[in-house]
Protein backbone atom coordinates (compact mmCIF):
# COMPACT_ATOMS: atom_id res chain seq x y z
CA UNK A 1 0.00 0.00 0.00
CA UNK A 2 1.45 3.37 -1.00
CA UNK A 3 0.56 6.87 0.19
CA UNK A 4 -0.86 7.65 -3.24
CA UNK A 5 -3.31 4.78 -2.89
CA UNK A 6 -4.74 5.97 0.41
CA UNK A 7 -7.34 8.63 1.07
CA UNK A 8 -8.04 10.99 3.93
CA UNK A 9 -8.50 8.22 6.50
CA UNK A 10 -5.64 6.12 5.14
CA UNK A 11 -8.09 3.82 3.40
CA UNK A 12 -7.34 2.00 0.17
CA UNK A 13 -10.07 1.85 -2.51
CA UNK A 14 -11.53 -1.68 -2.51
CA UNK A 15 -11.09 -2.52 -6.17
CA UNK A 16 -11.43 -6.01 -7.72
CA UNK A 17 -8.23 -8.03 -7.45
CA UNK A 18 -6.50 -9.38 -10.56
CA UNK A 19 -7.50 -13.07 -10.92
CA UNK A 20 -4.21 -13.69 -12.73
CA UNK A 21 -2.05 -11.98 -10.10
CA UNK A 22 1.26 -13.87 -9.88
CA UNK A 23 2.32 -15.47 -6.59
CA UNK A 24 -1.02 -14.70 -4.87
CA UNK A 25 -1.11 -16.57 -1.58
CA UNK A 26 -3.06 -16.60 1.67
CA UNK A 27 -2.36 -13.65 3.95
CA UNK A 28 -1.48 -13.89 7.62
CA UNK A 29 -4.84 -12.25 8.40
CA UNK A 30 -6.66 -15.06 6.58
CA UNK A 31 -4.73 -17.68 8.53
CA UNK A 32 -5.47 -15.87 11.80
CA UNK A 33 -9.12 -15.72 10.80
CA UNK A 34 -9.22 -19.50 10.25
CA UNK A 35 -8.08 -20.26 13.79
CA UNK A 36 -11.30 -18.96 15.34
CA UNK A 37 -13.33 -21.19 13.05
CA UNK A 38 -11.35 -24.22 14.11
CA UNK A 39 -12.24 -23.42 17.73
CA UNK A 40 -15.90 -23.57 16.76
CA UNK A 41 -15.41 -26.83 14.82
CA UNK A 42 -13.59 -28.42 17.77
CA UNK A 43 -16.39 -27.53 20.18
CA UNK A 44 -19.04 -28.78 17.76
CA UNK A 45 -17.16 -32.08 17.23
CA UNK A 46 -16.77 -32.51 21.00
CA UNK A 47 -20.51 -32.16 21.57
CA UNK A 48 -21.23 -34.48 18.65
CA UNK A 49 -19.02 -37.06 20.36
CA UNK A 50 -20.91 -36.80 23.65
CA UNK A 51 -24.32 -36.88 21.99
CA UNK A 52 -23.50 -39.97 19.93
CA UNK A 53 -21.86 -41.80 22.86
CA UNK A 54 -25.04 -41.21 24.87
CA UNK A 55 -27.08 -42.75 22.08
CA UNK A 56 -28.61 -39.52 20.74
CA UNK A 57 -27.34 -40.07 17.22
CA UNK A 58 -30.03 -38.33 15.17
CA UNK A 59 -30.31 -35.33 17.48
CA UNK A 60 -26.55 -34.93 17.85
CA UNK A 61 -25.90 -35.27 14.12
CA UNK A 62 -28.69 -32.82 13.30
CA UNK A 63 -27.31 -30.20 15.69
CA UNK A 64 -23.79 -30.74 14.38
CA UNK A 65 -24.82 -30.30 10.75
CA UNK A 66 -26.77 -27.12 11.56
CA UNK A 67 -23.96 -25.55 13.57
CA UNK A 68 -21.42 -26.63 10.97
CA UNK A 69 -23.46 -24.99 8.21
CA UNK A 70 -23.11 -21.63 9.98
CA UNK A 71 -19.38 -22.17 10.45
CA UNK A 72 -18.77 -23.29 6.87
CA UNK A 73 -20.96 -20.71 5.14
CA UNK A 74 -19.53 -17.76 7.05
CA UNK A 75 -15.97 -18.98 6.36
CA UNK A 76 -16.63 -19.61 2.69
CA UNK A 77 -18.25 -16.23 2.09
CA UNK A 78 -15.34 -14.40 3.67
CA UNK A 79 -12.85 -16.46 1.68
CA UNK A 80 -14.43 -15.80 -1.71
CA UNK A 81 -14.92 -12.12 -0.91
CA UNK A 82 -11.27 -11.84 0.10
CA UNK A 83 -10.01 -13.38 -3.12
CA UNK A 84 -11.94 -10.69 -5.00
CA UNK A 85 -11.55 -7.52 -2.92
CA UNK A 86 -9.03 -7.92 -0.08
CA UNK A 87 -7.07 -4.66 0.13
CA UNK A 88 -5.54 -5.26 3.58
CA UNK A 89 -6.04 -1.70 4.88
CA UNK A 90 -6.78 -1.02 8.53
CA UNK A 91 -10.58 -0.95 8.10
CA UNK A 92 -10.61 -4.29 6.27
CA UNK A 93 -8.52 -5.79 9.08
CA UNK A 94 -10.76 -4.37 11.81
CA UNK A 95 -13.91 -5.65 10.13
CA UNK A 96 -12.32 -9.08 9.75
CA UNK A 97 -11.46 -9.15 13.45
CA UNK A 98 -15.08 -8.24 14.26
CA UNK A 99 -16.13 -11.27 12.22
CA UNK A 100 -13.74 -13.36 14.32
CA UNK A 101 -15.64 -12.10 17.37
CA UNK A 102 -18.82 -13.36 15.75
CA UNK A 103 -17.25 -16.80 15.37
CA UNK A 104 -16.38 -16.88 19.07
CA UNK A 105 -19.94 -15.88 20.00
CA UNK A 106 -21.20 -18.69 17.80
CA UNK A 107 -18.75 -21.09 19.45
CA UNK A 108 -19.94 -20.02 22.92
CA UNK A 109 -23.47 -20.93 21.94
CA UNK A 110 -22.75 -24.44 20.68
CA UNK A 111 -23.19 -26.09 24.09
CA UNK A 112 -26.65 -24.54 24.70
CA UNK A 113 -27.62 -25.56 21.16
CA UNK A 114 -26.71 -29.20 21.78
CA UNK A 115 -27.86 -29.47 25.40
CA UNK A 116 -30.94 -27.25 25.49
CA UNK A 117 -31.79 -26.73 21.83
CA UNK A 118 -31.17 -23.01 22.33
CA UNK A 119 -29.66 -21.53 19.15
CA UNK A 120 -29.85 -17.87 20.20
CA UNK A 121 -26.10 -17.34 20.64
CA UNK A 122 -25.08 -19.24 17.49
CA UNK A 123 -27.57 -17.23 15.44
CA UNK A 124 -26.45 -13.92 16.95
CA UNK A 125 -22.79 -14.73 16.30
CA UNK A 126 -23.61 -15.81 12.75
CA UNK A 127 -25.70 -12.70 12.04
CA UNK A 128 -22.89 -10.49 13.34
CA UNK A 129 -20.47 -12.08 10.85
CA UNK A 130 -22.94 -11.67 8.02
CA UNK A 131 -23.74 -8.03 8.87
CA UNK A 132 -20.03 -7.26 8.62
CA UNK A 133 -20.04 -8.93 5.20
CA UNK A 134 -22.89 -6.63 4.15
CA UNK A 135 -20.70 -3.65 5.04
CA UNK A 136 -17.79 -5.17 3.12
CA UNK A 137 -19.90 -5.72 -0.01
CA UNK A 138 -21.27 -2.18 0.14
CA UNK A 139 -17.78 -0.79 0.52
CA UNK A 140 -16.60 -2.88 -2.44
CA UNK A 141 -19.51 -1.63 -4.54
CA UNK A 142 -18.01 1.88 -4.68
CA UNK A 143 -15.08 0.75 -6.88
CA UNK A 144 -16.32 -2.61 -8.22
CA UNK A 145 -16.70 -1.42 -11.81
CA UNK A 146 -18.62 -3.96 -13.85
CA UNK A 147 -19.27 -6.06 -10.75
CA UNK A 148 -21.04 -3.23 -8.88
CA UNK A 149 -24.51 -4.63 -9.44
CA UNK A 150 -23.33 -8.00 -8.16
CA UNK A 151 -21.99 -6.50 -4.95
CA UNK A 152 -25.31 -4.75 -4.31
CA UNK A 153 -27.24 -7.99 -4.84
CA UNK A 154 -24.94 -9.73 -2.36
CA UNK A 155 -25.47 -7.03 0.26
CA UNK A 156 -29.25 -6.91 -0.15
CA UNK A 157 -29.63 -10.68 -0.25
CA UNK A 158 -27.53 -11.24 2.85
CA UNK A 159 -29.39 -8.51 4.74
CA UNK A 160 -32.82 -9.94 3.94
CA UNK A 161 -31.87 -13.45 5.04
CA UNK A 162 -30.35 -12.24 8.32
CA UNK A 163 -33.70 -10.72 9.29
CA UNK A 164 -35.26 -14.12 8.66
CA UNK A 165 -32.61 -15.86 10.80
CA UNK A 166 -33.54 -13.64 13.75
CA UNK A 167 -37.20 -14.41 13.16
CA UNK A 168 -36.34 -18.14 13.06
CA UNK A 169 -35.48 -17.99 16.76
CA UNK A 170 -39.19 -17.50 17.50
CA UNK A 171 -40.28 -20.49 15.40
CA UNK A 172 -41.76 -23.43 17.40
CA UNK A 173 -39.29 -26.26 18.01
CA UNK A 174 -41.34 -28.65 15.87
CA UNK A 175 -40.96 -26.39 12.83
CA UNK A 176 -37.39 -25.24 13.48
CA UNK A 177 -35.66 -27.93 11.34
CA UNK A 178 -37.84 -27.12 8.33
CA UNK A 179 -37.25 -23.41 8.83
CA UNK A 180 -33.51 -24.01 9.07
CA UNK A 181 -33.41 -25.92 5.79
CA UNK A 182 -35.37 -23.19 4.01
CA UNK A 183 -33.10 -20.45 5.32
CA UNK A 184 -29.98 -22.45 4.48
CA UNK A 185 -31.28 -22.81 0.92
CA UNK A 186 -31.92 -19.06 0.84
CA UNK A 187 -28.32 -18.40 1.93
CA UNK A 188 -26.73 -20.63 -0.69
CA UNK A 189 -28.96 -19.17 -3.41
CA UNK A 190 -27.54 -15.67 -2.93
CA UNK A 191 -24.27 -16.31 -4.86
CA UNK A 192 -26.21 -18.18 -7.55
CA UNK A 193 -28.36 -15.09 -8.11
CA UNK A 194 -25.67 -12.45 -7.59
CA UNK A 195 -23.06 -13.96 -9.89
CA UNK A 196 -25.50 -14.03 -12.80
CA UNK A 197 -25.60 -10.22 -12.57
CA UNK A 198 -21.86 -9.94 -13.18
CA UNK A 199 -19.15 -12.34 -12.05
CA UNK A 200 -16.76 -11.24 -9.33
CA UNK A 201 -13.10 -12.13 -10.01
CA UNK A 202 -11.53 -15.03 -8.18
CA UNK A 203 -7.96 -16.30 -8.11
CA UNK A 204 -8.02 -20.10 -8.62
CA UNK A 205 -4.71 -20.79 -6.91
CA UNK A 206 -5.47 -18.48 -3.98
CA UNK A 207 -8.93 -19.98 -3.43
CA UNK A 208 -7.75 -23.58 -3.55
CA UNK A 209 -4.83 -22.75 -1.27
CA UNK A 210 -7.31 -21.34 1.25
CA UNK A 211 -9.41 -24.50 1.09
CA UNK A 212 -6.30 -26.63 1.40
CA UNK A 213 -5.01 -24.74 4.43
CA UNK A 214 -8.37 -24.99 6.16
CA UNK A 215 -8.41 -28.73 5.45
CA UNK A 216 -4.98 -29.09 7.05
CA UNK A 217 -6.17 -27.19 10.12
CA UNK A 218 -9.27 -29.40 10.40
CA UNK A 219 -7.23 -32.59 10.04
CA UNK A 220 -4.78 -31.28 12.64
CA UNK A 221 -7.63 -30.54 15.03
CA UNK A 222 -9.03 -34.03 14.47
CA UNK A 223 -5.64 -35.58 15.12
CA UNK A 224 -5.23 -33.55 18.31
CA UNK A 225 -8.72 -34.40 19.60
CA UNK A 226 -8.31 -38.09 18.73
CA UNK A 227 -4.90 -38.29 20.40
CA UNK A 228 -6.19 -36.54 23.52
CA UNK A 229 -9.09 -39.00 23.82
CA UNK A 230 -6.72 -41.94 23.47
CA UNK A 231 -4.13 -40.55 25.91
CA UNK A 232 -6.77 -39.82 28.55
CA UNK A 233 -8.11 -43.36 28.21
CA UNK A 234 -4.78 -44.92 29.21
CA UNK A 235 -5.54 -44.25 32.89
CA UNK A 236 -8.88 -46.08 32.71
CA UNK A 237 -7.91 -49.33 31.00
CA UNK A 238 -5.48 -52.14 31.77
CA UNK A 239 -5.07 -53.55 28.29
CA UNK A 240 -3.60 -50.61 26.40
CA UNK A 241 -2.77 -52.54 23.22
CA UNK A 242 -6.13 -51.79 21.53
CA UNK A 243 -5.72 -48.09 22.34
CA UNK A 244 -2.17 -48.01 21.00
CA UNK A 245 -3.34 -49.77 17.85
CA UNK A 246 -6.17 -47.28 17.47
CA UNK A 247 -3.75 -44.39 17.88
CA UNK A 248 -1.36 -45.73 15.24
CA UNK A 249 -4.19 -46.42 12.83
CA UNK A 250 -5.65 -42.92 13.38
CA UNK A 251 -2.30 -41.34 12.50
CA UNK A 252 -2.07 -43.39 9.32
CA UNK A 253 -5.65 -42.61 8.34
CA UNK A 254 -5.27 -38.87 8.97
CA UNK A 255 -2.05 -38.78 6.96
CA UNK A 256 -3.82 -40.66 4.16
CA UNK A 257 -6.67 -38.14 4.16
CA UNK A 258 -4.09 -35.36 3.79
CA UNK A 259 -2.32 -37.25 0.99
CA UNK A 260 -5.54 -37.89 -0.90
CA UNK A 261 -6.73 -34.29 -0.61
CA UNK A 262 -3.51 -32.78 -1.95
CA UNK A 263 -2.89 -35.23 -4.78
CA UNK A 264 -5.01 -33.56 -7.50
CA UNK A 265 -4.55 -30.03 -8.92
CA UNK A 266 -7.54 -28.39 -7.23
CA UNK A 267 -7.29 -25.12 -9.13
CA UNK A 268 -8.53 -26.79 -12.32
CA UNK A 269 -11.94 -27.36 -10.70
CA UNK A 270 -12.78 -23.64 -10.47
CA UNK A 271 -11.91 -22.25 -13.88
CA UNK A 272 -15.61 -21.51 -14.57
CA UNK A 273 -18.54 -20.32 -12.42
CA UNK A 274 -20.37 -23.65 -12.38
CA UNK A 275 -17.25 -25.52 -11.28
CA UNK A 276 -16.52 -22.91 -8.63
CA UNK A 277 -20.01 -23.22 -7.14
CA UNK A 278 -19.79 -27.02 -7.13
CA UNK A 279 -16.32 -26.95 -5.58
CA UNK A 280 -17.23 -24.42 -2.92
CA UNK A 281 -20.54 -25.99 -1.91
CA UNK A 282 -19.21 -29.54 -2.08
CA UNK A 283 -16.62 -28.73 0.57
CA UNK A 284 -19.39 -28.56 3.16
CA UNK A 285 -19.36 -32.37 3.29
CA UNK A 286 -15.57 -32.60 3.13
CA UNK A 287 -15.06 -30.11 5.97
CA UNK A 288 -17.90 -31.54 8.07
CA UNK A 289 -16.53 -35.06 7.65
CA UNK A 290 -13.01 -33.96 8.64
CA UNK A 291 -14.44 -32.33 11.77
CA UNK A 292 -16.59 -35.36 12.61
CA UNK A 293 -13.67 -37.79 12.29
CA UNK A 294 -12.31 -36.84 15.72
CA UNK A 295 -15.77 -37.28 17.24
CA UNK A 296 -15.90 -40.78 15.78
CA UNK A 297 -12.54 -41.73 17.25
CA UNK A 298 -13.63 -40.43 20.66
CA UNK A 299 -16.82 -42.50 20.41
CA UNK A 300 -14.73 -45.57 19.56
CA UNK A 301 -12.54 -44.93 22.62
CA UNK A 302 -15.64 -44.63 24.82
CA UNK A 303 -16.89 -47.91 23.38
CA UNK A 304 -13.66 -49.69 24.23
CA UNK A 305 -13.81 -48.33 27.77
CA UNK A 306 -17.44 -49.35 28.19
CA UNK A 307 -18.47 -45.70 28.62
CA UNK A 308 -20.76 -45.60 25.60
CA UNK A 309 -24.36 -46.70 25.29
CA UNK A 310 -23.77 -47.16 21.57
CA UNK A 311 -23.50 -50.62 20.04
CA UNK A 312 -19.82 -51.43 19.25
CA UNK A 313 -20.64 -51.91 15.57
CA UNK A 314 -22.25 -48.48 15.37
CA UNK A 315 -19.28 -47.02 17.24
CA UNK A 316 -16.95 -48.23 14.51
CA UNK A 317 -19.22 -46.72 11.86
CA UNK A 318 -18.77 -43.30 13.49
CA UNK A 319 -15.11 -43.53 12.41
CA UNK A 320 -15.49 -45.11 8.98
CA UNK A 321 -18.45 -43.07 7.68
CA UNK A 322 -16.76 -39.63 7.98
CA UNK A 323 -13.67 -41.04 6.26
CA UNK A 324 -15.73 -42.49 3.41
CA UNK A 325 -17.57 -39.17 2.94
CA UNK A 326 -14.30 -37.23 2.98
CA UNK A 327 -12.62 -39.44 0.37
CA UNK A 328 -15.66 -39.62 -1.92
CA UNK A 329 -16.06 -35.84 -1.67
CA UNK A 330 -12.44 -35.16 -2.68
CA UNK A 331 -12.72 -37.71 -5.49
CA UNK A 332 -15.85 -36.15 -6.93
CA UNK A 333 -14.67 -32.54 -6.67
CA UNK A 334 -11.00 -32.75 -7.61
CA UNK A 335 -9.69 -36.22 -8.43
CA UNK A 336 -12.21 -37.69 -10.89
CA UNK A 337 -11.54 -35.26 -13.75
CA UNK A 338 -7.76 -35.37 -13.28
CA UNK A 339 -7.16 -39.10 -12.95
CA UNK A 340 -7.00 -42.20 -15.14
CA UNK A 341 -9.26 -45.25 -15.01
CA UNK A 342 -7.17 -47.00 -12.37
CA UNK A 343 -7.36 -44.14 -9.87
CA UNK A 344 -11.03 -43.54 -10.65
CA UNK A 345 -11.73 -47.16 -9.81
CA UNK A 346 -9.54 -47.64 -6.76
CA UNK A 347 -10.44 -44.42 -4.90
CA UNK A 348 -14.26 -44.69 -4.85
CA UNK A 349 -14.26 -48.48 -4.40
CA UNK A 350 -11.88 -48.33 -1.43
CA UNK A 351 -13.83 -45.41 0.04
CA UNK A 352 -16.97 -47.55 0.05
CA UNK A 353 -15.11 -50.61 1.33
CA UNK A 354 -14.04 -48.81 4.50
CA UNK A 355 -17.67 -49.23 5.57
CA UNK A 356 -16.92 -52.95 5.99
CA UNK A 357 -14.73 -52.14 8.98
CA UNK A 358 -17.32 -53.11 11.63
CA UNK A 359 -17.26 -56.76 10.48
CA UNK A 360 -13.88 -57.40 12.12
CA UNK A 361 -12.92 -57.03 15.80
CA UNK A 362 -9.95 -54.69 15.21
CA UNK A 363 -11.22 -51.08 15.13
CA UNK A 364 -10.41 -49.13 11.94
CA UNK A 365 -8.10 -51.89 10.61
CA UNK A 366 -9.86 -52.30 7.26
CA UNK A 367 -10.25 -48.53 7.00
CA UNK A 368 -6.51 -48.11 7.40
CA UNK A 369 -5.78 -50.90 4.91
CA UNK A 370 -7.98 -49.42 2.20
CA UNK A 371 -6.65 -45.91 2.81
CA UNK A 372 -3.12 -47.20 2.32
CA UNK A 373 -4.21 -48.88 -0.92
CA UNK A 374 -5.55 -45.53 -2.15
CA UNK A 375 -2.35 -43.69 -1.26
CA UNK A 376 -0.12 -46.32 -2.91
CA UNK A 377 -2.25 -46.08 -6.06
CA UNK A 378 -1.93 -42.30 -6.10
CA UNK A 379 1.83 -42.52 -5.64
CA UNK A 380 2.08 -44.82 -8.64
CA UNK A 381 -0.19 -42.70 -10.83
CA UNK A 382 0.37 -39.00 -11.60
CA UNK A 383 -2.54 -36.60 -12.08
CA UNK A 384 -3.43 -36.31 -15.78
CA UNK A 385 -1.92 -33.21 -17.33
CA UNK A 386 0.48 -32.72 -14.41
CA UNK A 387 3.23 -31.74 -16.83
CA UNK A 388 1.17 -28.79 -18.04
CA UNK A 389 1.10 -27.42 -14.50
CA UNK A 390 4.83 -27.81 -13.98
CA UNK A 391 7.37 -25.08 -14.51
CA UNK A 392 10.86 -25.46 -16.04
CA UNK A 393 12.20 -26.95 -12.84
CA UNK A 394 9.37 -29.48 -12.59
CA UNK A 395 7.54 -27.57 -9.88
CA UNK A 396 3.90 -26.54 -9.98
CA UNK A 397 3.33 -22.95 -11.03
CA UNK A 398 2.14 -20.69 -8.24
Describe this structure in words.
The structure is a single chain. The protein is 70% helix and 0% strand. The chain has 398 residues and is mainly alpha-helical. The chain is globular and about 70 Å long.
Ends: how far apart? Answer: 22 Å
Overall 3D form: globular
What radius of gyration results from the CA coordinates?
22 Å
Rounded mean pLDDT is 89
The total count of strands amounts to: 0
Helix fraction, binned, reads: over 70%
Short account of what is shown:
By secondary structure, this protein is mainly alpha-helical. It contains 13 helices and no strands. The longest helix has 33 residues, at 273-305.
Give the helices and strands, then pairings.
Blueprint: H1 28-53, H2 57-85, H3 90-108, H4 110-116, H5 120-141, H6 148-168, H7 176-194, H8 204-233, H9 241-261, H10 273-305, H11 312-335, H12 341-353, H13 365-380
Helix pairs in contact: 1-2, 1-3, 1-8, 1-10, 2-5, 2-10, 3-5, 5-6, 6-7, 8-9, 8-10, 9-11, 9-13, 10-11, 11-12, 12-13
Amino acid sequence: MTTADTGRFRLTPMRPRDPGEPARSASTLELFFDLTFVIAVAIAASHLHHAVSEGHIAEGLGNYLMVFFAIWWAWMNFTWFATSFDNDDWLYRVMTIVQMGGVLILAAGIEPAFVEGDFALPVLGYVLMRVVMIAQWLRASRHAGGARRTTIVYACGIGAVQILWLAWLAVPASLAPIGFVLLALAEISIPLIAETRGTTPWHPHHITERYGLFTIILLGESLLASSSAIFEAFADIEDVVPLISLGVLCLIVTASMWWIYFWPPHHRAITALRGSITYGYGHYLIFAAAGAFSAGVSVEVDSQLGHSSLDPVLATFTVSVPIAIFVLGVWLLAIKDNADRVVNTVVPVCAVLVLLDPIIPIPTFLTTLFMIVIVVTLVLRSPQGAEADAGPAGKRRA
